[in-house]
Amino acid sequence: MASQTAVRAPRLPGYAQELTRAESDIASLESRRRSHPGDLEKRVRLAYRLFHRASLTGSTAHFEAVDAAIREALDDFGPREDVCLLKANLDFRFHRLAEVRQDLQMCPKLSGRFEGRIVLADLDYQEGRYEAAKLELERLIAENRTWDNLARLAHWKSKLGDIAEADQLYEEAEDDLTAKQMRSYAWLELQRGVLALTHGRYIEARKHYQRAEDAYPGHWHTDEHFAELLAAEEKFDEAAVLFREVIARCPKPELQQALGELYLFCGRPEAAQPWLDGALAAYLESVERRGVHYFHHLADFYADAREEPAEAVRWARKDIEMRSNFSTQAAMAWALYRNGQLSEAVEYIRLALSSGVRDAGIFSTAATLFDAAGETAESQRFAQTAFEINPQHQNFHMHH
Are the C-beta atoms of residues 45 and 29 closer than 8 Å to each other? Predict the structure, then answer.
């Protein structure tokens, strides 16, 4: 007779285990660097493992360690393609887009290589050359149908194309993964969840987020998505508890802003202020260190959380000078509107809309601005389209 005791499948290795392995590898490679500083292969591997750890933790200090390792390698060995490529990816992550091009130019052949072309396609998208980005991604996929480029094209489709096709591409990207790539699988499930969330399909979003947690347990990034979903579902107390837990593990200022804005959203301004103060201090500290990747968050912060619209306009202009795309243009439009500069605000929202973007938040902004400008028919059209894309678009959402 078969045993009546259920056999539980072993829990998959997750975030904690991967971080432990990364820390162990880094310690070993650091030891090798001290004893054999001229070992180029190990120095490059160290820089990549440091980047891997920083990507896991989201820690500013960890990313600074990556930057230091890259600069030391460049000083000691000169420009090498793998080091320049890593620097390009690091600079791209922190919106240092002008530096990205310089990184690729340090090794002239890199821009023509598959990996370099991926970076350039990402640049095209960030700088508003959407069709060029799509065409290059399609060429790259035709040459080598990798999961990450399928995901890039899926993101393009999610913003400028068809969401069903976007989800299909994400699913195909998942099918391309091996059983060992569970973190990548979880990340793709989170993207599919975001796609569902931004179209008001909360049950579907939760299913994707749960699959991400089951595949790669313990990652704060998954809990961040669950917290936003809880807030969208108006489960504010549960969302606040989870946001606080995530912040304790990963004190990123954008998460502190999200929690502060959640408290504002549910009518608790006194609870919001410490979190907003902490977020703002971290944003400004980053700027003092010549960081640029929080310009977008500062524009959102001063437009809505702290309501200093002139400051919102100042930071939105800085952001759009670096990368003019539908996201930065819409943020510029909203900041200008909040600052009473309606005519210029309408110009910027028209520019954002001319991209072909289909986003409920941007359409809702357009509806508000056109209504204020007396363009009632346009306002109603965009309000209706925003509702059709996401009937829940007025619910809580994080600034991304």
Answer: yes
Quick one: pLDDT at residue 12?
58
- Domain holding 171, by residue range, is 160-217
Instruction: For residue 391, give every residue at least 6 positions away whose Cβ sits within 8 Å of its Cβ, in sequence order, or none.
Output: 200
Distance (Å, whole) CA 287 – CA 297:
12
CATH classification of the domain holding 397? 1.25.40.10
3-state secondary structure 339-370: CCCHHHHHHHHHHHHCCCCCCHHHHHHHHHHH
Read off the pLDDT of residues 199-213 as tens digits, 9 standing for 90 and up.
999 999 999 999 999
Give the N- to C-terminal CA distance of the chain in Å, as an integer: 56
- Residue 4 counted as domain residue: no
- Tokens 């004893």: give the residue: 35
Instruction: Go through the chain and tell me how many residues it has.
Output: 400
pTM higher than the cut 0.70: yes
The domain tally of the chain equals 2
Q: How far apart are CA 302 and CA 332, in angstroms?
A: 12
| Strand ranges (E), the chain | none
Q: Are 83 and 110 in contact (CB under 8 A)?
A: no
Average pLDDT of the segment spanning 18-34? 97
Residue 43 within any structural domain of the chain: no
Judge whether 245 lies within some domain. Answer: no
